[in-house]
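fyi for ur records
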Amino acid sequence: MKAAVWYGEKDIRIEERELKALKDNEVTVRVAWAGICGSDLHEYQEGPVFVPTKEKDGLTGEIAPLIMGHEFAGVIEKVGPNVTKFKVGDRVAINPTITHGNKPEDVDAYDGFSFIGLHGDGGFTTFANAPENNVYLLPETMTLEDGALVEPTAVAVQAVKEGNLRFGDTVAIFGAGPIGLLTAIAAKAAGASKIIVLDLSETRLAKAKELGATHVINSGEVNGVEAIHAIVPDGVDVSFEVAGVAPTFKQAIDATKARGTMVIVSIFARPIEWNPIHLTNTGVKITSSIAYTPTSFQQTVDLMGTGQLKPQGIITDRIQLDDIVEKGFEALTNDKSQAKILVELSGAK
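which gave:
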């Protein structure tokens, strides 16, 4: 089967691969649609970040070169003998997070985690295997294209929950890439009264406004923190750092009110220099979020199914697998008008 395989930085190849043998607790999914994530882009631009290259991953047992893709949905083609919750023909989305499963779900990932599509073969291909516990049935109200948006939307849902966002709260989101845009959508659904989005790209800010931001700020043209305080004098209740660079990390703290919360959502590919006295002087609390719990993933499916979460507006292009490097990774690197690019595999609805 044809697959997009990660070999190294700026080295993703379209080649033929064999599907690994199906384990007793797994299903085989015929992939319909798969999204390119910011984490995938990090691996392409400056990897390895997560991809195991020196020894096999402890949870997946796999090592590079690996088939990429962890945001995907499709139709079950085959089930292992121990699978009880699903059948051939079911339309499903995949939660790519693999953990040891020894702790309560809210702390389970911090005991060690891996991702299908980063630490082991994923969804940029025809067929993919996934454990039964990582498979989520899609309601009839959702298309398989919608299903490919569940994973990144769940990241935003979890981030909003980590920030303890309440009805009427004000938020600032630093970074209007796909996860920043989804965080704005999730914050709106959670009842935020002011949603302030900051970015350097006017195109991305226009998209943020379209998707529910009440205010947008081009932080390349004005002082972002001052602009936020002009809207919310004491600072926002919750800020989200979704850019992954030192300046926005510090600005997110400065934009947050005393005893408010800054949530780190982004993946920092490199260390930054920062003095923790920044918190001592401002009274801001910091927390972070990695992926989502199984409960948050299911809630995301449920909320998308009822239309209370509508992330479809972040899709900016649909491409074929053969074009994933030029029209996918390179486009996301060089064209800031791009947000979420979906790769069509079977293209089933």
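The mean pLDDT is 97. thats all i got for now
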